[in-house]
Design brief:
With 754 residues, the chain is of the alpha+beta class. 32% of the residues lie in helices and 22% in strands.
């Protein structure tokens, strides 16, 4: 279906509703004091939906995103503290409650499939406005898409500015002076006449000050805190052990449980024999549970300790009905994708000019096929969840989740109770990478808690269950074709790719009633939306459904599509007998931000400088999640195995909130991407995942990790994402370096020379 037909059809189906709804003002994201009524818990006063002042003068900031190492517990409070003119040391962080004002608007608007060069077009602006308005109504609290700072940039600054105005008004009222004579400096309200008050002294007066209807934000030139490498607020707790991850939950009378689930997607339980398991020490219950929210059906063993539960699980005899997917084989699925690449028409995400005609007159046509495998998330903290049914019928959940509002909905649906009866505490996450956007891990916990009520139960997945029941990064194949004129100048760019689509599957698991197959931007991002200046373009994607459960993986479609595009750009440079850096640079004449990033990476890496014998450099440039990243990788071979020694990264992520966090995220993204580039691969045989633990799902180790250098381009643009954009360019930069070193072009991941 063509995009225009799809959009007009949707408008026709509900046109009157859309038009009537569109004239209503957007829902405010400031929130009210009632939003944080229970959040403050009697200690101080709430000023709006995001900020409260404690009796001791501390500023409590509600952070609506999950902290999984990416630094939101520091970056987002910095936005509030900047506008309040308060030292970051005076700020305390609390996980926000579930409320519509905390919904992630930026992530949903970024899901629209518009080319960046058309971002200011009427269609693009209109669509963004509608989706932003819809996102405010839905209020989905989601941490993903490298959107936390982008989404918080205005509402959290506005909340801080409103809090500052209210503090000034409270002090002015208490002193009987004009508000214009007062100001906030370094966490203290001061009057021109010399009076001053700390925040805690104004709590009583603040309760009588109304929330301002409008506020004035600082100009970027006035920033004192934003842009500085402030120390992270979550570090002390992670050092002294007081930080609470999901696996750290301890509750009086708590029981522990482990799970075993059907190993074949779509399979069922045939038989369970648990008599021997029930005789084991400490065992309380062995129960089965049905599949839901993408969780496979399985069994849960509840005991007094996790170790007792694990030993008992080994005594349970289970047999499975493999079902229709018993013959699932990853090699056959990839062959099916390659056939679809040749035979299916697909959906056009972007077209410009007449690519077919341009290819016919090209002096040289370069044509190549690329592929990438399924990948697991392999978070350091395995999947876990704690649940408890209370005597009054409430369900309490402690979970490391990226989607609290979705998880509460899924839990309520599975438990058969109203969502208002579900209490959720979001813990710290020991890695997310998109895996904890799913809610499947709440299902066994609810099943166990139902059997043990009213005692709480913590369910911990083994690494093997985690690895074999993931929602994997989709495998993909792509064919790229380009034409060059006699002088080596590019004329046309044509791509066709095949993969399964994540978003329809994710929606079906979270909200079955809303499940519908529509074109999914994540399938083609990085192929259709890059900014190289080809006059003629044609970018098509074929969605091919597979039995493999798939989900969002760090940088999603960009993770493999950047490998395809940036490796192929290198092929074009070679065909044109041009330097890969200069070739890219010439294709960005009208894109100065991209050229600046590319230039900085090449300069800092010493692109034209000498290297030791047996070393080579590769370069790649890619935009994702609102940020532009260029990387240069220095590579050698050791006994025929690639060794990456140094990665120089330049990034333009707009206005930088905390450069230290940017550098941390870039380094983490590089190592994460290097694991995928050199090792990552999930395969299926006879319906089952062949990789079970780290010995057969290899990770980059410390001895393999390169030196990572991060250079930030100064920018006045609004913030872009940081958690993911440095992952996509890594694989092509390494692959291009290997080509320069060996003359062998590697077109499939992971990168293997033999």
């Amino acid at each position: 279906m063509r995009r225009r037909t799809f959009l007009l059809g949707a408008l026709g189906a509900g046109g009157a509703l859309v038009v009537g709804w569109s004239v209503l003002p957007p829902r405010s994201r400031m929130g009210s004091r009632e939003t944080l009524a229970n959040f403050v818990a009697g200690d101080g006063v709430a000023l709006n939906g995001w900020v409260s002042i404690a009796n001791d003068g501390g500023v409590i900031v509600a952070v609506p995103r999950s902290e999984m190492g990416q630094g939101v517990y520091t970056a987002l409070p910095m936005l509030v503290a900047e506008e309040m003119d308060v030292p970051l040391a005076q700020v305390r962080v609390a996980q926000a409650p579930i409320d519509a004002i905390f919904g992630n608007v930026a992530m949903l608007t970024a899901s629209l499939p518009f080319h960046p060069d058309n971002a200011d077009g009427v269609a693009s602006r209109t669509a963004r406005w509608f989706v932003a308005k819809l996102a405010r109504e839905l209020g989905l609290q989601v941490t993903g898409g490298s959107s936390s700072v982008r989404d918080a940039w205005l509402p959290m600054r506005e909340a801080g500015a409103a809090a500052r105005a209210m503090l000034v008004a409270a002090a002015a009222r208490q002193w009987g002076v004009a508000a214009g004579e007062c100001r906030v400096e370094a966490g203290v309200v001061r009057h021109d006449g010399g009076k001053q008050a700390r925040f805690g002294e104004l709590v009583q007066a603040l309760s009588e000050v109304p929330v301002p209807s409008s506020v004035r934000l600082k100009d970027a030139k006035q920033f004192k805190l934003v842009g500085t490498p402030a120390a992270r607020l979550d570090t002390p707790g992670k050092v002294d052990g007081s930080a609470r991850f999901g696996t750290d939950i301890r509750i009086p009378e708590m029981l522990y449980a482990v799970v075993r689930m059907c190993p074949v997607p779509g399979g069922q339980i045939a038989r369970i024999e648990s008599d021997e398991a029930m005789k084991q020490p400490g065992v309380v219950k062995v129960a089965r549970f049905d599949g839901a929210a993408g969780c496979a059906p399985g069994i849960v063993v509840v005991a007094k300790t996790t170790w007792q539960a694990k030993l008992a699980l080994d005594k349970v005899r289970t047999s499975w009905i493999d079902g229709a997917n018993s013959a699932l084989d990853s090699r056959k699925e990839l062959e099916r994708m390659r056939r679809a690449l040749k035979e299916e028409k697909g959906f056009t995400f972007h077209a410009r000019g007449d690519a077919s005609a341009a290819l016919k007159v090209a002096a040289t046509v370069v044509d190549a096929e690329y592929s990438a495998p399924w990948l697991a998330h392999a978070t350091l903290e395995p999947m876990n969840c704690t649940a408890q049914f209370t005597d009054d019928g409430r369900l309490k959940i402690w979970a490391p989740t990226q989607v609290p509002s979705v998880l509460r909905h899924v839990a309520a649906r599975y438990a058969g109770i109203d969502a208002s009866r579900v209490e959720l505490e979001v813990t710290l996450l020991g890695g997310g990478f998109g895996r904890r956007l799913e809610s499947d891990f709440v299902i066994p916990a609810i099943a166990a808690a139902r059997e043990a009520r009213p005692r709480p139960v913590k369910v911990l997945w083994s690494r093997e269950e985690d690895m074999t029941h993931d929602f994997y990064r989709p495998a993909a194949v792509a064919r790229l074709k380009a034409g060059l004129d006699a002088a080596g100048k590019p004329l046309a760019w044509v791509t066709k790719s095949v993969s399964d689509a994540i978003t329809p599957q994710f929606t079906a698991r979270a909200y079955p009633a809303l499940a519908v197959d529509t074109p999914d931007k994540t399938t083609a991002e990085g192929l259709f939306d890059q900014s190289y200046e080809f006059a003629h373009r044609d970018c098509v994607h074929v969605t091919l459904k597979t039995p493999v459960p798939i989900g969002y993986w760090r940088s999603v479609g960009h993770s493999h599509n950047a490998f395809f595009t940036e490796s192929f750009i290198d092929e074009l440079a070679h065909a044109a007998k041009r330097d890969p850096f200069e070739f890219r640079r010439d294709l960005l004449q009208s894109h100065p931000r991209y050229r600046a990033v590319l230039d900085l990476a090449a300069e800092k890496a010493g692109w034209t400088g000498p290297l030791p014998a047996g070393f080579a450099r590769g370069i790649a440039l890619h935009e994702s999640f609102g940020s532009i990243v260029a990387q240069v990788a220095e590579v050698s071979l050791r006994d025929g195995t690639p060794q990456v020694h140094r990665v120089v990264c330049a990034i333009d992520c707009g206005i930088v909130v905390n450069p230290r966090i940017v550098a941390q995220q870039v380094a983490g993204s590089v190592v994460f991407g290097l694991t995928a580039a050199l090792h990552g691969e999930i395969t299926f045989k006879q319906g089952r995942v062949e990789q079970h633990n780290f010995p057969d799902y290899e990770m980059v180790r410390m001895a393999e990790s390169p030196r990572v250098e991060t250079h930030i381009v100064a920018s006045t643009e609004p913030p872009g994402g940081v958690g993911e954009p440095a992952t996509p360019p890594l694989a092509p930069a390494v692959g291009n370096a290997l080509f320069a070193l060996t003359g062998k072009r590697l077109r499939s991941l992971p990168l293997r020379l033999a």
